[in-house]
Write a structure and sequence with these properties.
about 280 residues, alpha/beta, single chain, 8-stranded parallel barrel, TIM Barrel, 3-stranded antiparallel β-sheet
C-alpha cells in the first residue's frame, strides 16, 4: 500500500509489513471468576512472546481471550491489574512492540494497562461504530479513548477495528469506515473476517483500503503462510494468531509454524528490496 506520493506506508515503531502475533491468555482472575494464577499466566505469556521474537515477528498483542463469555461494560480492577503485570513482563522480556486488547471492547482498561506496562498500542474493537455482538451492544469508544490519550504523558497508539468480527453493524460498512477515519484519530485501521481465524475476501479488504483515508491498514484475522501473498499488496501489516498455534486458538504457539510465516514475510520484503522491520 502506498501514499499518493508513492511512499510506502510504515506502521509507527513497527516498520514495513510487520507481523504482530497474538498472545491469547488463559482465564484471568476477575471479580466474577477466580481465574488462573497470575504468576503462571505471566510465565506463559512471556514464553509465547519469546517464541514470536525467535520466529522473527515484530510485535505481539496480549489479549484476555480466555475470559469468555466477555463483559461489555465496566472496569474490573483485578483484570486490569493482571493485564498490566502481564503486558509489562512481556514488554520487558522481549524486543517486541507490545499491544493490549481487553475483550470485549474495553479500550479504557486496555489503555490503562498499556500505559502502566509501557506497551506501545491498544486494539479497539468498536472505536467509532455501534455493533451488535453475542455479548451485547458494543458502543463506540473513540471519544473516551481520545480524551484519555490527550492527557497521557507517553504516546500509546490506537489500532481500530472496522466491521469487527463476531458482530454486526447498524450502518453500512462504507459509511462507518469513512466516518471513522474522518472523525477519529486512530493510528491504524484493522480489517478482519467474520470470526476468529476467518480470512476476509481480498476484494473486501481492497474496498476498506480505499476508504481508509491514507491510514495504515492491518489484516486482523485469517492470515496463513498459504495466503500471505494474496494480502501482501493490500495491507500494511498483519495480526495473526490461529494459524501459528499448535492446535486451535487457545493452544500455545507452534514455533515452527511461526517461523515459516515469518520467513515467507521476509522473502516478500526482500523481493521489494526492503529489509526486516526493526526488532
Amino acid at each position: 500500500m502506498m501514499r499518493e506520493d508513492g511512499a510506502e506506508l510504515l506502521l509507527p515503531r513497527l516498520g514495513y509489513k510487520p507481523l504482530i502475533g497474538m498472545i491469547h491468555l488463559p482465564q484471568l482472575p476477575t471479580l466474577q471468576r477466580l481465574g488462573g494464577d497470575v504468576e503462571e499466566i505471566v510465565e506463559y505469556a512471556v514464553n509465547e512472546a519469546r517464541k514470536l521474537e525467535e520466529a522473527g515477528f515484530q510485535g505481539a498483542i496480549v489479549e484476555n481471550y480466555g475470559d469468555m463469555p466477555y463483559h461489555v461494560d465496566g472496569v474490573d480492577p483485578l483484570r486490569l491489574a493482571a493485564m498490566s503485570v502481564i503486558a509489562r513482563e512481556v514488554a520487558r522480556s522481549t524486543s517486541l512492540v507490545v499491544g493490549v486488547n481487553v475483550l470485549r471492547n474495553n479500550p479504557v482498561e486496555a489503555l490503562a494497562a498499556a500505559y502502566a506496562a509501557r506497551a506501545s498500542f491498544i486494539r479497539v474493537n468498536a472505536y467509532c461504530e455501534t455493533r451488535l455482538a453475542p455479548e451485547g451492544i458494543l458502543e463506540p469508544k473513540a471519544a473516551v479513548v481520545e480524551d484519555i490519550r490527550s492527557r497521557l504523558t507517553r504516546a500509546v497508539m490506537v489500532f481500530a477495528d472496522v466491521d469487527v468480527k463476531h458482530s454486526y453493524g447498524l450502518t453500512p460498512v462504507e459509511h462507518a469506515v469513512r466516518q471513522c477515519v474522518e472523525r477519529g484519530y486512530m493510528d491504524a485501521v484493522i480489517v478482519s473476517g467474520s470470526e476468529t481465524g476467518a480470512a476476509p475476501p481480498p476484494g473486501y479488504v481492497a474496498a476498506i483500503r480505499a476508504l481508509a483515508g491514507g491510514k495504515p491498514l492491518l489484516l486482523g484475522s485469517g492470515l496463513t503462510v498459504d495466503n500471505i501473498r494474496v494480502y501482501w499488496g493490500l495491507v500494511d501489516g498483519f495480526i495473526v494468531g490461529s494459524s501459528i498455534k499448535v492446535a486451535g486458538t487457545m493452544s500455545p504457539i507452534d514455533l515452527e509454524k511461526a517461523r515459516r510465516l515469518a520467513r515467507t514475510a521476509q522473502e516478500l520484503r526482500s523481493a521489494r528490496g526492503v529489509g526486516a522491520p526493526p526488532q
